[in-house]
Design brief:
Layout lengths: L1 E7 L2 E6 L9 E10 L2 H8 L15 E8 L11 E4 L2 E2 L5 H4 L10 E3 L6 E3 L6 E5 L3 E3 L6 H4 L2 H14 L8 E4 L3 H12 L5 E4 L3 H9 L4 E3 L6 H8 L6 E4 L4 H9 L6 E4 L12 H7 L2 E4 L5 H12 L9 E6 L3 H8 L6 E5 L1
Parallel strand pairs: 7-8, 11-12, 11-14, 12-13, 14-15, 15-16, 17-18
Antiparallel strand pairs: 1-2, 3-4, 3-9, 3-18, 4-5, 5-10, 6-7
Length: 343
């Protein structure tokens, strides 16, 4: 099978590898679509340091079951499925508490976080645990379905953790892929005024089309003054979905009494300062969110199945696996949103 292998920083090469064989409780999936996450791009560019080479990236897949291992029930060849990249044991205390993304024995296919990193989905085939698969609704495209994992993360962060309420005024800082999902979830959940902040006018145009009531570009606007002109009483919820430490500092500057804020986009180990007394008297509540879990995956699938959120609208580019090098180049361009690989 054709596979994209990251041999070293800036060296993502196409190789022929043997098609894997599923073991007990595992499934072989023919990958139809796989989204490129910013963490994939950071691994290629060397920004993300927790990569062991060689590494097969790609952790946002959807496809068709091509083989089933022993002891797998309820899944058969030909099933169209969505794959969660985070595998879990189901037996440890975290799994039994419903927090499978804290699993003591977790692994990832093409992602990062645990010690057990398995080949990902920038390949024609993928082997993973049967309990990471979810049925793809017939009316949902593979390109939309492959975005379930990040969409579920947005639902988990905005709704489950930050408890966004109908009518809340929301600011989303960073409207790349994850920011767009957060924006769409907030819009669907009944956000009042919804402000998108990004340095890319292209991304802000897309944000407008997806329901942002206002857009701000830090290169052109004094964001804090503009936000408080639009929202004189300040935001109810601020989501940092950008990644750079400057976005985190901007988020902190926007807080007023009672603001909820979610540290979502930054995954690198950078520091920012807080005034302890100010945080005390503001009663600003900080949440953060990483990865996903079965409850969030099921809710994301429900949003797509019912037509409440359509991730197809976020896709700006599609590439075959053979052109993944070009796809990574486009990832560095300001004129793109979600990029999908179709092996």
């Amino acid at each position: 099978m054709l596979t994209a292998v990251l041999r070293e920083v800036h060296r993502l090469v196409l190789e022929e590898r043997p098609t894997p064989v599923p073991g007990p409780e595992e499934v072989l999936v023919r990958v139809r679509s796989c989204g490129i996450c910013a963490t994939d791009y950071k691994a290629v560019r060397g920004v993300r340091q927790n990569v062991s080479f060689p590494f097969v990236p790609g952790h946002e897949p959807a496809g068709v079951v091509a083989g089933v291992g022993a002891h797998v029930r309820g899944i058969k060849e030909g099933d169209e499925v969505i794959i969660c990249p985070s595998g879990h044991c189901g037996y440890c205390r975290y799994c039994r508490m419903g927090m499978t993304h804290y699993c003591e024995h977790w692994y990832t296919t093409g992602g990062d976080g645990p010690d057990d990193v398995r080949p990902g989905s920038f390949a024609e085939y993928l082997v993973t645990g049967a309990n990471t698969l979810y049925p793809k609704p017939p009316g949902v495209s593979f390109d939309a379905a492959c975005q379930t994992e990040p969409l579920s993360g947005a639902w988990k962060g905005v709704i489950h953790y930050s408890e966004m309420k109908v009518g809340d005024d929301v600011v989303v800082i960073g409207t790349g892929g994850i920011g767009m999902y957060c924006l769409m979830v907030a819009r669907a959940a009944g956000a009042g005024r919804l402000i998108a902040v990004d340095v890319s006018d292209f991304a802000l145009e897309t944000a407008r089309s997806l329901g942002a009531t206002h857009t701000l570009n830090p290169k052109k606007d004094d964001v804090k003054s503009a936000v408080y002109e639009i929202l004189p009483q300040g935001p109810d919820l601020v989501v940092e979905a950008a990644g750079p430490i400057e976005a985190v500092n901007l988020m902190v500057s926007l807080l007023r009494r009672g603001t909820r804020w979610n540290l979502f986009g930054i995954t690198t180990h950078e520091k920012f300062e807080l005034d302890g007394g100010l945080m005390h008297f503001l009663e600003a509540r900080m949440d953060s969110s990483f990865s996903t879990n079965p409850m969030a995956m099921e809710n994301a699938i429900r949003l797509m199945e019912r037509g409440v959120v359509n991730p197809d609208k976020v896709v700006s580019h599609r590439f075959p696996l053979e052109s993944i090098g070009k796809a990574m180049e486009v990832m560095g361009s300001p004129r793109r949103n979600k990029i999908v690989i179709n092996p």
